[in-house]
Design a protein that fits this description.
This protein is of the alpha/beta class. The protein is built from six helices and five strands; from the N terminus they run βαβααβααβαβ.
Length: 118
Amino acid sequence: MTKAAVVILAGTEGHANVGRLVNGLETAKEFAETEGDEVELIFDGAGTQWIPELEDSDSDYHELYQAVKDDASACDFCSGAFGVDDAVNDSGVVRLDDHDGHPSIRSLVDDDYEIITF
């Protein structure tokens, strides 16, 4: 059994960041589809800005996002800092605030998750 935490940090600006997002979503999907694996998909920092875009059914990546949405969460603090509070709330994505308003990466490491950042 493999445990992975895929953390999307890439913002929405630029072609390279789109590539990071798509690679992160594909990685999360691969873990989600593999029997016995556990995956956590975390939108953190500027990555929280992707949630309203991915929720839009016209997004090129909406279907890919939907495939892993049940495993997704978002940084509580960063959702506010990057101006996407309402969109994250509307999405139903779980907000994490375990460590000073942010997700606790340490607790994931302590739970034997491999941390993969995009």
